[in-house]
Amino acid sequence: MHLTPLFLGALAALAPAVQAVGNAIVINNCPFPAYLVRVGQFQGPENKLDANGGRYSEQFVRDPVSGGIALKITRTQGGVPRGDPQTIYAYNLNNNRIWYDLSNVFGTPFAPNALRLAPSDNTCPTIFWPNGVSPGGSQTRDCQPNSDVTLTLCA
Q: What whole-number distance in Å separates Cα of residue 61 and Cα of residue 124?
């Protein structure tokens, strides 16, 4: 079978565009372990982030029900279901952008240590809390969806 360039061009025009998507990354540089639970439509298992370099990574996705994903991080094993102090790295892949946010609930689990939420595309805004406490105001930022966005604990 011989396919002409015109036919191949027409076929390519019908195919949906595949867009590169980045990753949500959490790196634990603290001298103690941290525990991460992924929450969207469903709650995932707890992931231990070892002290001094433990890492978690997932490709950005859009949750079909909730829209956004929350990576809930505590200093205590089993802390999320108990309602222990949590730092939450939330993201939402929407309208050809990755929206990311940092917040604390039920306390400030990483104070007085710095937290940095930074995209790999350095033209996009970073969120930096020098003492692990929100400076107040909206902490929501956005970037190109192919950028990795990394939360560094004890930055």
A: 19
